[in-house]
């Protein structure tokens, strides 16, 4: 009898020591996915990936919320509010690394909430200062992405030219990595001699209307300047996010595009962008897979919650698209 009692006690201890699943505890994990801007169509596939991952896992809720436009103060405020509402994990596309580092992100860390980044990571300075500020980065290798943009330019301009780069926020570390990658690829060209237009790079602050205005300004003014801009690289989808406006504007400049007097190479490859590419309204796109970013963000937070190992970086694929091949060539970074 004593032996049976001891065995029962040991069995009970083992059961109590095992971690309870979320289903067993009746708890639904609430993971927040915070894009740079909700009005940015690039992030809609990431939202779908988040929702699909939550459905597959079964005991997870995906909360997708971001500022209407890419404003670091609004992003910080949303993160802080969601922490107060009791989220269990956070994935953020960083707009301004230093701004949120000691505000909402510090608040998340103090609350024991795991943090991952997607699409846009913290700056190298922030990561060097706070090595454990996030568990992992999920997304494109932005430096390699920039190099692919530069390589695509060299397909058409092997002998060099005058370049203008259009970016989003000056403070966005991922976009700055892309810019470095572009410059590296062009500088490494054996025969090409490249210079940048004196008024560039331009920063549209992730605003589609501003980006289109900047593109048209360079297209119409920079190309007539004595320096003759002949190549425009846009690091993200911004001017093409309102495809009808872009189509109307660039159709009026179709002859210049067809003659390749001015090259337009664009980041991202949303379906609407590929339609513009097919119509000859750009010369190439380097795209990402935002769906994978959203899906892997939730899956990674789930692993962290259950004490599983996650790597410091999870790279998602990219693809290079041409007018004659809008499906593109997929490259696993």
Summarize the structure.
By secondary structure, this protein is of the alpha/beta class. Helices cover 44% and strands 20% of the residues. The protein has helices spanning 2-17, 22-25, 44-57, 72-84, 97-101, 104-110, 124-129, 142-156, 173-187, 208-222, 243-251, 254-258, 271-278, 290-305, and strands at residues 29-34, 60-64, 89-92, 115-118, 137-139, 160-167, 193-196, 202-203, 231-234, 263-267, 284-288, 313-315, 318-322, 325-331.
Note the total helix count.
Answer: 14
Low-confidence regions: 5-21
State the CATH architecture of the largest domain. 3-Layer(aba) Sandwich
CATH topology of the largest domain: Rossmann fold
**CATH class wording of the largest domain:** Alpha Beta
Please give the domain count.
2
Tell me the fraction of residues in β-strands, as a range: 15-25%
- SSE class: alpha/beta
What gap, in angstroms, lies between the N and C termini?
63 Å
Largest sheet: 8 strands, mixed
Rg: 23 Å
Question: What global shape is seen?
Answer: elongated
SSE topology string: HHEHEHEHHEHEHEHEEHEHHEHEHEEE
